[in-house]
Amino acid sequence: MKNSPQIILGIDPGTIVMGYGLIAVDKNSISLVEMGVLQLAKHKDHAERLELIFRKMESLIKTHKPASVAIEAPFYGKNVQSMLKLGRAQGVAIAASMMHGLAAVEYAPKKIKQSITGRGGATKEQVWQMLQHTLKFQEDVRFMDATDAVAVALCHHYQSKYDDLKGDSNVKVPAKKKKMSWETFIASNPDRLK
For a designed S-S bond to 10, which of 21, 120, 130, 190 qualifies (C-beta 3.0 to 4.6 A apart)? Predict the structure, then answer.
């Protein structure tokens, strides 16, 4: 019996725009399943926005049956009200995941960028270009929130793969280095240049 691909749902939480992205992992093959955004700006009531986020999460989980959910952790800014609203959006997405028996793993924006491009300070455009190359899609994305969500899902896949390697006593995992050049990153990750 053939194993079906593992689906990973990535979420870029927001109360104005929530990005989502789903990837399918089948052995060494990774493909884009779906990506998009939930537009919430026209809904003025914050509670209504949170309900819509919950409903979208439920719909994505029921439709695609992901094995795991990964969420971008909030970026800490100076506007406390914005941070509170973003935290609520993230909490609702986590709650929806948990209602379906899925733990939601958080990743910091810098960790996601480093995982995808090899540089924690990469721009959104550099992340998008690497995603296009890795997942072989041509679409021109109107909203970076969608590609950010795909990056979260791909980061989760890479991190899970790395964690599996760390648990294998036959595999020597290199010690963490402070800085890695682009050439070193490519040499260490040849599977990303197919």
Answer: 21
CA pair distance 158, 59, nearest whole angstrom = 25
- Per the CB < 8 A criterion, the answer to whether 37 and 18 are in contact is yes
pLDDT in tens, 103-162: 899 999 999 999 999 999 999 889 999 999 899 887 666 678 999 999 999 999 999 876
DSSP label at residue 28? T
Domain range 6-192, CATH architecture: 2-Layer Sandwich (3.30)
Q: Which of 106, 145, 168, 183 is catalytic?
A: 145
Burial class (CB in 10 A: 0-12, 13-18, 19+), 83: middle
**Which position has the higher pLDDT, 87 or 166?**
87
Q: Is 72 a catalytic residue?
A: yes
Contact 114, 120 (CB under 8 A): yes
Domains in the chain: boundaries: 6-192
9: β partners: 22, 69
Given the residues 34, 45, 58, 72, select the one marked as catalytic: 72
Catalytic residue among 12, 51, 58, 168: 12
Amino acid 161: pLDDT: 75
Which residue bears the tokens 């109360």? 15
